[in-house]
Amino acid sequence: MTDHIPSTSPDPELWDRPKKGPAGELFAPVAGYGVTISSMFRKPVTEQYPEEKVPTAPRYHGRHQLNRYPDGLERCIGCELCAWACPADAIFVEAANNTPDNQVSPGERYGRVYQINYLRCIFCGFCIQACPTRALTMTNEYELAGPTREGLVYEKEDLLAPMLEGMLAAPHPMAEGASDADYYRGEVAGPTAAQIEWVAEHRPDDPTLATAVSVDAPGPFDAAAAPAGAPVDSAAASADASGGKRTEGGR
Ligand code: SF4
Ligand code: SF4
């Protein structure tokens, strides 16, 4: 009746350790040092952070970044999909309407307020998967610490990608003849002469005017040679319809 139940009484042979020889008995008290001593001759694996920083894996999930289009307009359209996808409720977005005088991103709306709370974020990446315009991506930056809780709520200015050489700071009108779909398809390669003229007229002190490179007439904009409010060169204007876009359709 009870044949299938294994015996719980201990098998004495399980507990019998082999007897040590005289040498084993002699070195037994210091045998544990063998592990220590053998480790002394191995290559150390300790990372000397923060003195030496080891690069992360290329796809490491670090701090977020809000990207721009090549002409400087922001990619974020304030749709809040990232905030809805976030399981930690770490993102807050408040959108506003683009206007002719304040065109921040292609299309109707842009992200006026954008915050990520790094006290909540678990770096899962759901938000960047949800973003329809690739406005939101993640960098390899992992040094996210600070003395205050407020300091770990990153604002839009903290997250916006830096202006690259040749870009023109937003706000400014969209490239002539380009729709928001053209922007999404990567067909806008950089600022046009008309966009640069617009910024020169409305923000003559904008520092990106000195480095902006027009896709119509490549070369830094010369604010001194073209005073604020100067009309757009007609040849450049006529080229805008095609010059403001990439013809190969690549990014
Ligand atoms: S990485 Fe994850 S937790 Fe962090 S903001 Fe994005 S969706 Fe939220
Ligand atoms: S980052 Fe992307 S998903 Fe989030 S509000 Fe902007 S466009 Fe929408």
TrEMBL record:
Cofactor note: Binds 2 [4Fe-4S] clusters per subunit.
PANTHER family assigned to the protein according to its UniProt record, in alphabetical order: NADH DEHYDROGENASE [UBIQUINONE] IRON-SULFUR PROTEIN 8, MITOCHONDRIAL, NADH DEHYDROGENASE UBIQUINONE IRON-SULFUR PROTEIN 8, MITOCHONDRIAL
GO annotation, cellular component aspect: plasma membrane
Source lineage: Bacteria, Bacillati, Actinomycetota, Actinomycetes, Actinomycetales
Binding site for [4Fe-4S] cluster 1: 76, 79, 82, 131
Sequence ranges of Low complexity compositional bias: 220-242
InterPro entries (UniProt xref): 4Fe4S_Fe-S-bd, 4Fe4S_Fe_S_CS, NADH_quinone_OxRdtase_chainI
Record EC number: 7.1.1.-
Gene name in the database record: nuoI
Topology in membrane: Peripheral membrane protein
Originating species: Peptidiphaga gingivicola
NCBIfam families given in the database record: NuoI, PRK05888.1-3
Ranges annotated as biased composition (Polar residues): 1-10
Chain sites annotated for binding [4Fe-4S] cluster 2: 86, 121, 124, 127
UniProt protein name: NADH-quinone oxidoreductase subunit I
Top-level EC class: translocase
Reaction(s) catalysed by this chain's protein: a quinone + NADH + 5 H(+)(in) = a quinol + NAD(+) + 4 H(+)(out)
Subunit structure: NDH-1 is composed of 14 different subunits. Subunits NuoA, H, J, K, L, M, N constitute the membrane sector of the complex.
Positions of region (Disordered): 1-20, 220-251
Similarity remark: Belongs to the complex I 23 kDa subunit family.
A single GO molecular function term of this UniProt record: iron ion binding
